[in-house]
Amino acid sequence: MDNSEGKKQAWVVRAYEKYEDIVSIGLTGLIAVIVLIAFVRLTVDIYQMLLIGMLDPLDHKVFKHIFGMIMTLLIAMEFKHSIVKVIERKDHVVQVKTVLLIALLALSRKFIILDIKTMNPVSLAALALSVLALGVVYRLIREDKHTRADKPKDHSRTHAWDEE
Fold this sequence. Notes:
Structural class: mainly alpha
């Protein structure tokens, strides 16, 4: 490869990185707006429950409603944080570990808000199996990372989770 081809490829890489930055900033902005709207909605809901005297955290329906909204906010903020890391170039892609943790948060939220009396047992088992599978994959990724840290570096294979 001659010098002019190398410069052309470097320019293409830089242009694509700028494109990724623009998309990531746009996504971050959109998610920030969604989080703000959800936070305002949560605040208004809690304020209205206080006014009418319905805020009883021991009431299962109220608990599910409030914590379902809180978990939704946490999921959105974690997702936004993973995109911000891409913008700051701490990571070049959204990390597999982060995606797994967000999925586990989403399933945890589902377990908090579901009504077990109306839930189909097969669906409940599928949700439980999903949590188990995500947990096992997360554990395997962590073990792989720690095992690799103990061994001399082999740069022949790289994974998205190696850079975390």
